[in-house]
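Researcher: Last one for today. Full complex below.
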Amino acid sequence: MRAHEFMRRDLTSVELDTTVAHVIYLLHQSGLASLPVVDEDGRVVGIISERDLIRALLPGYVDMLHSTAFLPSLDQLGRKLREIGGKRIAEFMVREVIAARPDDTDLHLADLMIRKGLKQIPVLDDENRLVGVVRRIDLLHRLQR
Amino acid sequence: MILTVTLNPTLDKFYWVDALPLSLDQPEEAILIRATKSLTSAGGKGINVSTVLACHGVETVALGFLAGHTGQIILQDLLSRGVTANFVWMPGENRTNVTVIAKGREYHPLLIHEEGPPVSEEAMGIFLRKYERMVRRAEYVVLGGAIPLGCHPDCYRTLVHIAHAAGARVVVHAGGEPLAHTIAEGPFLVKPDVRAELQLGGMPVRTAEEIVCAGKKAVEQGVGACLISHHVTGDILVTRDGVWEFEARVPLTTFKNLVGADDALVGGLLVALLRGEGLVEAVRYGMAAAVATAEIEEKLCGDEAAIRRELDQVAVRQRGEG
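Model: Here's the assembly. Have a good evening.
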């Protein structure tokens, strides 16, 4: 089966100058784990995920040590979040977009998700415009049928 | 691709009951009405048009504002029906519109409509940028329904202007002031919503003669075509080339649910236009879609075979005065 046959046709996305606070609001509202970032022509130029936002909040040593054991409390993260809440998402997004095409197979998408550890993959047309998204649960739901 | 705009989406909730009380004026007692059946679906004029289009395999993207848990249900319902969704999320809760249909009184349902959440300037700004991006890919744009609190009354005029600049044709499926503001922009077709006020551009549209008069004035002012419902089974189309009357020869007793029939008409006519049919024949197909929709309990009929069966019932006559 091809991506366009089972992708979620939800084009929820953000722009480069969308604030961090608004992205958190949108992720919460939409129930998505990440959002495509689009330019003025609607082309996907980045992805912002829960993981990218968490990484932006954590002190650098956490990434280095692969541990949060030295974090005194979550208050520090809350303060940091308030500091960056008004900043543009362009500062925090990942610019290397791992995406699928509408004609890609379900097997190809599953392979991408497993190899890259992705919760969802945007589906783009020939001009890199968003046409849908495939989540892990969409694949599982499809397999169950 | 056809882009539809629903600034004030709704969750449509339908209840079928055996009977409604003759009077609700009994303050001493609660009134319990048991529903024999209920249905829920995403709604609002633009959304309904998108649903009809998706059923016909036409690529369509629905735009507008979603809010709260109701917004999430609306989104899930739309996605499950094959409509591509590109909404702006905002605080609050989308409205729920309730329709109570009593046995034997299907064409006089009881309607309870909520107002919907207000739209902030910030949310409108996000919407406009989305709209500008999407309209470049659209062949037709449908602007549907009432304008929510917070939106300027002439915002449909802005949307028509942007669509024209992008080379798209616009169908305005709305009523009152929002529609009146768009006329100067010369949209491709207007389908006035005359449920609330029987007027178009300040002119009454109660009789066939009044409809023709108001339609001709709108066309003189730049509108490509004006399509107005005359009564439950009749519509009048006014263009520069003439005036056509459409009549569906079906008894009212066959109707089970009239909500959505108007939107099926617009969706159906767009399907036919995309197939290359002329406007008059397209309206005829739209009317067949509206009749097929009214004859089922589900809000919208997307079954092409059922629509084609109704085509023979829709008569078209060009009015003599041209």
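DSSP finds seven helices and five strands in chain A. Chain A touches chain B through 19 residues (CB under 8 Å).
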